[in-house]
Amino acid sequence: MEKALLNVEGMSCGHCVKAVEGSVGALEGVERVLVDLKEKTVAVEYKDDAVSLDKIKETIEDQGYDVV
């Protein structure tokens, strides 16, 4: 199990949390997603043999947010 803490710009409300957690959480291999609006971070636990960190970042960006 891998863990990553991503800095994400553009998240500001509950809808943002739901969009990111829902889309990333739906990826095969993602075990846990936790958005922290105050810190502008997304913590992800995932199986690196099932999903890549690049795919997780791409999924967040597809929701309209910037992974920095």
TrEMBL record:
One GO term of the biological process aspect: copper ion transport
Database matches in PROSITE patterns: HMA_1, HMA_2
Cellular component aspect of the GO annotation: cytoplasm
InterPro entries tied to this protein: CopZ, Cu-bd, Heavy-metal-associated_CS, HMA_Cu_ion-bd, HMA_dom, HMA_dom_sf
Residue ranges occupied by any HMA domain in the UniProt entry: 2-68
Primary localisation category: cytoplasm
UniProt keyword terms in alphabetical order: Chaperone, Copper, Cytoplasm, Metal-binding
SUPFAM superfamilies: HMA, heavy metal-associated domain (SSF55008)
Family matches, as Pfam families: HMA
Protein's cellular compartments: Cytoplasm
GO molecular function, one term: copper ion binding
Annotated protein name in UniProt: Copper chaperone CopZ
Organism: Neobacillus piezotolerans
Organism phylogeny: Bacteria, Bacillati, Bacillota, Bacilli, Bacillales
